[in-house]
Specification:
single chain, globular, about 40% strand
């Protein structure tokens, strides 16, 4: 009986340990292809990398590298596991938003609700703007197209 209990305990321990090896969103080291592409596109920059699962079934891997493009600007480069850039996001001042987007925000949100503003370029060179706002103790991304037209609002965790 002691042996059976010991074997069961060891199996459970191994199972729990194996499930804890790669945690999404934890700091990781991406594959060489990703690092090579990143260094080629952003020479001299050092990123902190995280692993994310995306897609309909969370079956696609993305590597997100956060880094500073200058002293005051944070950026995010997103790559697939083959080193293909999927998106680039960089902080911008509110004044760089298209006027149409600025008008929408002014009409619908108080200035103190705006937490962050970013320009996003996807792998097809489509430009969008994401504005992080806080409303009723919840955080949202308000997304605008390249001309400043409202696209969608997404609640964040």
């Amino acid at each position: 009986m002691k042996k059976a209990f010991l074997i069961l305990f060891l199996l459970c321990s191994c199972l729990l340990t194996a499930q804890n090896q790669i945690a999404p969103s934890s700091v990781v080291t991406p594959p060489e292809k990703v690092l090579f592409t990143f260094q080629k596109e952003y020479p001299g920059k050092v990123a902190v990398w995280a692993l994310k699962y995306v897609g309909d079934d969370d079956d696609e891997i993305r590597y997100e590298g956060k880094f500073k493009t200058n002293e005051n600007t944070e950026s995010l480069a997103v790559y697939d596991n083959l080193g293909v850039l999927k998106a680039f996001e960089t902080q911008i001042p509110l004044s760089m938003l298209p006027l149409k987007a600025q008008g929408y925000l002014k009409k619908n949100y108080p200035a103190k609700a705006i937490r962050e503003v970013a320009m996003v370029v996807d792998d097809k060179n489509k430009i969008t703007y994401e504005v992080g706002v806080e409303k009723d103790s919840k955080f949202y991304d308000v997304v605008f197209d390249k001309n400043g037209g409202f696209d969608v609002i997404v609640q964040k965790d």
